[in-house]
Every structure is written in structure tokens, then in C-alpha cells.
Request: fold
Amino acid sequence: MRTFFDCIPCFLRQTLDAMRFIGAPEDVYESVLRGVLEQASRMDLLRPPPEMGQVIHRTIRAAVGDTDPYRSVKERATRLALERLPGLRRQVEARGAGRFESAVRIAIAGNAIDFGVKASFRDDDLDRAVDASWSAPVDTRAIEALRGAAEDARRILYIGDNAGEVVLDRLLIEAIGPSKVTFAVRGSAVLNDATREDADASGLSALVEVVDSGSDAPGTVLPDCSEDFRRRFREADLVIAKGQGNYESLSGPEAVSLAGGRLFFLLQAKCPVIAAHIGFPEGSLVVMEAADPQG
Amino acid sequence: MRTFFDCIPCFLRQTLDAMRFIGAPEDVYESVLRGVLEQASRMDLLRPPPEMGQVIHRTIRAAVGDTDPYRSVKERATRLALERLPGLRRQVEARGAGRFESAVRIAIAGNAIDFGVKASFRDDDLDRAVDASWSAPVDTRAIEALRGAAEDARRILYIGDNAGEVVLDRLLIEAIGPSKVTFAVRGSAVLNDATREDADASGLSALVEVVDSGSDAPGTVLPDCSEDFRRRFREADLVIAKGQGNYESLSGPEAVSLAGGRLFFLLQAKCPVIAAHIGFPEGSLVVMEAADPQG
Reply:
């Protein structure tokens, strides 16, 4: 997905929100904002928004001198999701034939843990997102297609999004069968996106192979990823990409055509630009397969 | 007032809103946004926001090749306000001793006609603003101070804001006594701000002397105004400045100390930054005297 004009004011708003959220000293605000403005003035609008997100968060991290300013936030989100996990697992498993769909719903509910679109997140925001997800409208045919693709696949690459959210991804991975799943996290810290440390703390590393993208973009910008990651992306029979950042960076025709197998997006459509691009109302639970650019 | 960090995303949002509102061709959006980003990256944050507004609207006018893209909007606002004027005048005059305060309220209600903060304006928005203004909380002591200052003054400079709004300023000028009032408009077209053409169409030019600022800033940026305007600003016993743009550009200590007489602001606090700066809730009717920087 390209960068839309409406993303531009939002980049600046996110920059400011992020600095406030991490408690950046006021004296760095000006230099960070100037840096982001200057780089935004030269950006390629045909590239996806997470490339600018990468620039923004690199600029902020350098200015505050902290390689991982969201560390404590991520740890809190992981603890919260781990607390909720056993109860949610019981509820999902009790659904019998509806287990796969329920696991998809909870995995998408976890995508509410996001500090990019909204600069704050409280414990009861997750509970509310989970409560709403049980009965929210969702494309059940797309879920059936995903279930079929997961059954047929031998190699599944599951690209995670945020810390805490990845804990709830475990329920879907358990429903799919962990043995054929490789879980991907970001190459290093950016925003509250999950890294290897968060995957370890989430219990994912004990369940599946964990790889990282090699990139600090808040999404999956393939040209910026490691060759090893790109090979896994090409060789997987099925890629499941979670969240807006992965959607933004993997829904364009170049990325879609690089996927050797099928490619599904699971996300909450949290901003009006994404919602319009997907054609879903804002706030929707989205399950969709990328269209094959070859036809 | 300096430019606050929160003004920066808003500059970009306003740029986009303005291009959509005036129906700019899509192919100019990118170059305009890049120009605004680049200029914002170098702006002096100690200067008031209308200086960036001036840059934004100059960039847009140059890109669309139209020296006054809000012309038809301004004409519509003027017609609407002229339609409402006789009825409002009857209501204001019927208030007897409350006439001055009522005229102040209606003049501030007219400040709702603004295409900067919100990119659209409908006829019933004015009617709603007028209805609300009759009973909205307002600082009656500040109004009494203004009435006293107006009675004492021999030379009053009344700095208008938007087309349409200036029609309703007539009621306050009538309450003050037009003979000692000079009315100031922008030097040339910017946004929907009133220019001499709008003052003529509003019937103001038949009522009072009309001067222009000599500047196309959407406010009163004194260093950018004509020497004639600055002289009038210094020599007036009382300056009445309408709207956010005039507040932003005239509330700093340099501008306040240049005013030879007393300086009052009349506005609706339409954005959170201004509301916080003034210390009024967003949406308030504001009547306030500038504090003398000499103490």
C-alpha cells in the first residue's frame, strides 16, 4: 500500500504522541519534529507508510538515546496477555468446531495493543477488545479459506505485530498446529512491536521456531529485511501477517508476488485510510487473502 | 503566541483540508505538501502560527494558479450574514442596556465562519453559533472593560477576521459609534479572511473608514504589515482584534508593547492549543484584554 496524503499529518501527530508517551525531554521535540518534517518532504509516496514509521522511530530513539523506549510498555502488555491467556484458551477450546474461528477472533483482538494509532493503551482496552471480538462481524468465508490453507500448508510463516498481541497469537498457532509454523518478529526494537525478547517472554519460542525480519521497520518492508527472512517469505506455503503495519507493507503487488504461497492478513482496521483501502468500516476485524497480482 | 508542537500536524491537516475544500487538482497535492513540509522543517517556532498559514496558503494559491480560491465561499458567507443582519440588529437593539454585551456576543458568534480550523461551513452552523452565543458563558467584566475603553477612546482600530463575520461586526461598531472606528482587513486574499472587497460587500465601507494590513497572513503579523497599518496600530487608543489568527499574531509581548493604547481580543477558542493558551474551555466565547508587558 502506498502512503496516502492523509498519512502525512498523521506521521507528525504520531511523532508527537510517541515522544510524549515515552516521556522524551521537551528539548528534543523540536529537533525530532524538524527531522521528520525534512525527511517527510523527500519521501517516496509510492512506498508504504511503515518506511516513514521506521524513520520516525529511529529519529526518536537517537534523540532520546534509548534503543528501546517502549521496553517497559511491551513487558506490561506481555504480562497482561499472559494473565488473560489461560482463560481465553479455555474459552477458545470450549468452542469445539468453532475453535479455529474463535482463535482467529482472539488473535485479532490482540491487535488492539498498539501505541501507533492511539498513543495509550490500558488493561481494560484489551478486555474490551476481546469481549467485542467474540461477536464482531467477520468474514467467515475468509476464515474458512485460511483454515483450509493452514491445513494444506507444510511451511507457515506467521508474522507477528505487537508485544502482548503475540501472546494471543499462540491460540491460533495451537489451533493450526505449531509444528509447521515459524513465527517472525521485528529485527530490533521499534514502537511496541514484538522482538525476539518479547517472543521469548510470551512463551512463543518454546512453542515454535522464532525468526526475525532483520529490519526495524514497524511492518515488513521486504527490501529492508534480511536475505534469510526473504527466503522464508518466498518459501512458505502460507504467510499469515498480523496488524496494520504488516498489511501496509505487504499488500502491494511487489510484496504479494514475492510470496511463494498464499498470503492472509489478520488485523483491526484502526485508521480511516486503512479502512478505506481495505473497504471495511473503521474498527472492523479484518481477515483477508491478498489477491494474486498475476490474476 | 509562539507556534506549539501540536500546531505542526495541524498545519499539514489544514493544507490537505484546504486543497480538498477548494477542489485543487489531485496532481498538485504532492508538490504542495512537500513544499509545506520543507518550509515547516525550517520554521521559527517562536513566530506565531499565522506565519506558517501565510506560507501554506501562498503555496496552495501558486500551485492552483488562483489568487483567491475562497472568493465564492466568502461571497456566500457575506450574503448569508447580510440576510441575518436585520433580524439580529433588531434583537440586539431590543436589549436596551444589554445592547453592547449582545453586540459583542453576536460579533463573536460570527467568528464561527472559519475554514481554517474546520474545512467546511454550512448556513445553519452560523445560526447555531448565534443561538448559542446569546446565553454562552462570557466574561462580563471584560465586556464592561471593553465598553469603557471604547467610550474613552478617540481612535479605535477594529481588526476584522473572516468574510461574513465582518458583517456581524457592524452591530458592535454601531453600538460603539462608527465615527471613531477604523476597520482593518487583510492586504490580499488568504483563506476566507475578509479583504477590502468583502468589507465593501458587507456595507462596512459605507459605515467606517476601511484600511488593509498590507499583508496576506491570516492574522496580523506586524513585521509583515504596511508602515501605514503599523502606524494606525500604534496610534489607536483601542485595538479590537477579532478571531484566532489575530489573537495568535498579536498576543505576544512584542505586538502588545507596540500597541499604543489598549488591546482587546474577541474570538471563539476553536482549537485545543489556543484554548489552553488562553485558559478557556474549547468552544468558549473569549473577550480578553492583552496584559501590558511593562506590568
Summary: Chain A has two domains: 7-64, 71-289.
